[in-house]
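Section 5: illustrative case.
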């Protein structure tokens, strides 16, 4: 990166943004001119391409990531008697999906080094109750940093729990298992189900959109049913059959379908997913280098391997730094047209979860993390010049 002290940002620099090309636009227009606005051939094409991308057997495209989570908790049978463990440092949907089915959300604190769900805390919770007390775990590949699902699976199996991997931040990310093998986020080798979002700031953008991946045929079939009102036309499943028009609503499902034109956009975006991921890694390496030795800035989960420029499997949805005067830096950057963001306000401190009995102070590691974290601009079209400008402004603030 070349330093250009004359550079002034002409446009606001957000923390994340989509990248829509002429090919993307052409793909959507082509679908608009086709016979299908809702469920057409692009849905299956997107599902198949996405399943291939993450290395899973099955994929189900849905209206958004939250709908994906809801279908997962439904398919796993969450109900009023269920207790499900998740992290407070996530977008609230990771927890809300348990509530949609009437279950209880059981937060566990985070690992201070990574801000990921702390497996030791989860283990301690499981050990403190009789087997069967908890039903499932929803770990989140927070910021794009993949959770070690091999370790979570081992623990979950000891206690008979299912796992939903919230991989919204990490398509293309991977962790390395105990045999040295790369395990792609959402590949279904360890989690029962995994979910993704295609919200504009994510790696693949369809506006609204989501995907569920799994290797379980049984869960896959349930998801298909629940995505469309619980209605089936499959002659093998029908209890009766009155003729060609006949269908049956066999379960209480929803309309969580994603339209064909958004899937066309998804297919087109997916073709550039690897290039986008490479650019994210480049941007992260630039930040790492710039801030590694800067007093007053702590990097979140940047390992020695990352600092040496080695690929760690991190998908860098977000690039997070920790600073003491976080509000000061946030406001200072805004004055310079840089729109950093905070990920996340701990879910248990939200008024809704407080109304269910959670209190500030319940998860001190998460709350301390929240007091310092700031997500800097991170998206493939961020230019080198813009990034230098961001780095300069951050350094200017912390050196004051
Ligand atoms: C970790 C996480 N889980 C779930 C969601 C929900 O996805 P959506 O906004 O597509 O409903 C998001 C995205 O906003 C997210 O970041």
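Designed sequence:
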């Amino acid at each position: 990166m070349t330093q250009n002290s004359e550079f002034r940002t002409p446009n606001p620099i957000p923390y994340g943004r989509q990248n829509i090309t002429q090919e993307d636009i052409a793909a959507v227009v082509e679908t608009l001119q086709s016979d299908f606005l809702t469920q057409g051939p692009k849905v299956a094409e997107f599902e198949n391409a996405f399943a291939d991308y993450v290395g899973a057997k099955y994929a189900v495209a849905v209206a958004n990531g939250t709908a994906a989570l809801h279908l997962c908790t439904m398919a796993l049978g969450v109900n009023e008697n269920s207790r499900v463990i998740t992290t407070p440092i996530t977008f609230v949907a990771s927890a809300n999906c348990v509530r949609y089915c009437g279950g209880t959300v059981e937060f566990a604190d985070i690992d201070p080094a990574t801000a990921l769900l702390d497996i030791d805390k989860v283990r301690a919770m499981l050990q403190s109750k009789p087997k069967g007390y908890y039903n499932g775990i929803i770990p989140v590949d927070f910021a794009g940093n993949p959770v070690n699902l091999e370790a979570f699976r081992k623990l979950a199996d000891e206690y008979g729990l299912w796992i939903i991997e919230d991989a919204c931040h990490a398509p293309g990310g991977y962790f390395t298992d105990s045999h040295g093998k790369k395990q792609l986020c959402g590949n279904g080798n360890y989690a029962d189900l995994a979910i993704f979002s295609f919200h504009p700031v994510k790696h693949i953008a369809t506006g609204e959109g989501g995907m569920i991946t799994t290797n379980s045929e049984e869960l896959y079939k349930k998801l298909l049913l629940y995505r469309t009102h619980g209605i089936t036309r499959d002659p093998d499943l029908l209890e009766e059959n009155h003729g060609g028009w006949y269908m049956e609503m066999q379960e209480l499902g929803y309309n969580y379908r994603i339209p064909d034109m958004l899937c066309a956009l998804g297919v087109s975006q997916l073709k550039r997913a690897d290039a986008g991921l490479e650019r994210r890694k480049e941007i992260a390496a630039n930040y790492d280098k710039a801030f590694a030795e800067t007093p007053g800035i702590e990097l979140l989960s940047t390992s020695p391997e990352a600092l040496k420029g080695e690929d760690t499997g991190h998908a860098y949805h977000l690039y997070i730094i920790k600073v003491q005067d976080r509000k000061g830096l946030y406001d200072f950057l805004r004055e310079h047209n840089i729109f950093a963001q905070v990920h996340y306000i701990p879910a248990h401190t939200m008024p809704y979860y407080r109304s269910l009995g959670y209190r500030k102070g319940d998860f001190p590691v998460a709350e301390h993390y929240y007091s310092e974290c700031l997500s800097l601009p991170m998206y493939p079209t961020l230019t080198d010049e813009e990034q230098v400008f961001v780095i300069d402004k951050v350094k200017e603030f912390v050196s004051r």
